[in-house]
């Protein structure tokens, strides 16, 4: 599959998930978004870009941090995400925030447009992450900050459940080939940022526990985000068996009230344009 085809497939997944994205009553994207904004050190009056804004897990905390004297712009390549988020902004009365359809791979803004660029759990989904980072570096003002979150560790029960679901994919369904992870660890992240003319300021991990009423609630959550990319390829006649296998894999995450609790760790990197790097 070409990079363009992968990008189109990803947009389709999030377009279909938009109505329920981050709306299933699970504490996940919200806490991660708020922590990303906190680590970025957003200040009143800042001009901020949120790439791959989704339904606003980063966008709304950024708007609170800049206050009405600032300006926050969110971009997403899925038109439905943009439409739903624009309506949420309208209802909230946030006139210093706008959202538009644009590509997180190469946002269409002049160099030096922003004090901060925020990328919450999105850069690793892009066809060419390092190229995207170079673009972000050019869009930042000289003392600007880029704050990026990537996954650090998934709950072992979640990993086992995903493997159980994947075992039910059709035999002819292509599996993504293993690739080098430019965000695998602190050393790799620092090198990745350096290639993009960015100097790392801090790297830290942040952990969230997400609770689910039962396996059905977990499956509802899975359909509401990127997990849909896997689920939609399991043919209907295999889904009950797939869910049963996933439920067995999730048993170690069972809590006393009968629900499930899964812990996810992300890694937040804050970087700034390197002195002397080209501005365009």
Automatic annotation (TrEMBL):
> What CDD domains does the record point to?
AdoMet_MTases (cd02440)
Keyword set for this entry? Methyltransferase, Transferase
Question: Could you tell me which residue ranges the Methyltransferase domain spans?
Answer: 44-170
Q: Name one GO molecular function term.
A: methyltransferase activity
> GO terms for biological process?
methylation
Q: Record's Pfam families?
A: Methyltransf_31
Domain of life according to the entry = Bacteria
Q: What protein does this entry describe?
A: Methyltransferase domain-containing protein
**Taxonomy of the source species:** Bacteria, Bacillati, Actinomycetota, Actinomycetes, Micromonosporales
